[in-house]
Amino acid sequence: MPELPEVETIVRTLRPELVGRSIVSVDLRWGRTLAVPAPDVFAGQITGQQILAVTRRAKYFQLQLTNLNLFIHLRMSGDLLVKDGGLPAEKHDRLHLNLSDGRRLVFNDARKFGRVWLVADPEEVTGGLGPEPLDTLFTAQMLYNNLHRRHRQVKPLLLDQAFLAGLGNIYTDEALHFSRVHPLRLSDTITLDEAEELLRGIRAVLQAGIEHNGASFDWVYRGGSFQNHFRVYGRAGEACPVCGAPIQRIVVGQRGTHFCPGCQVR
Fold this sequence. Notes:
Elements: H1 4-18, E1 23-28, E2 34-36, H2 39-46, E3 51-57, E4 60-65, E5 69-73, E6 78-84, E7 93-99, E8 103-109, E9 115-119, H3 123-126, H4 140-148, H5 154-159, H6 169-179, H7 192-211, E10 248-252, E11 255-259
Parallel strand pairs: 2-9
Antiparallel strand pairs: 1-7, 3-4, 4-5, 5-9, 6-8, 7-8, 10-11
Helix pairs in contact: 1-7, 4-7, 6-7
């Protein structure tokens, strides 16, 4: 599943292609792609809307329209592309938004897990999300306070989108290694100094991911190179780049988790 850096990369690619264009018609090719509203309502509401901005909230794409907001979550296998309007539809295309310049925004999703929302109030979709880790208003003191309001293992807590928005399995493992925190560490045992280092690690790996256009390691997401710079993720048995100890893989909260027993002492 694409995480914050992959979504941010696609947002930056789509923004110049979409801003200022209007949606002239809709081809909904699989009705259950829509979370809300109903298909007939969706077509009536979105037709004629101009795309004013293309942004991101956590792992959601947000298209700010004339008076509505379109949210798209790629989930496991979704993809967003701008294509020539004359090209034939592909097998896994779920939604076409036909644009005023003759092209179309295509939502392609092989596994059908991705979803689309069209709402007036963004809070209907993103109201339950936690803070953005790259937001400069989010401080280490705030992270420390939030960690100490819970009594949970830190790895699954960081994956909880209501706690902190945008992190997934890859960047959580990378950030925990960067900050030398064991994935099974209880959140309310982390000191303020450790919270400062954890936030620094989270931001460092996310920024590095964005700089490398995300990570391309399966057939779904394309174009990134951050997988060539992983510290621990997917490197079980290999030497830690910091201390040389063999990287280990365990399962935490039903998620494969990679860490260094030398750097990340429990």
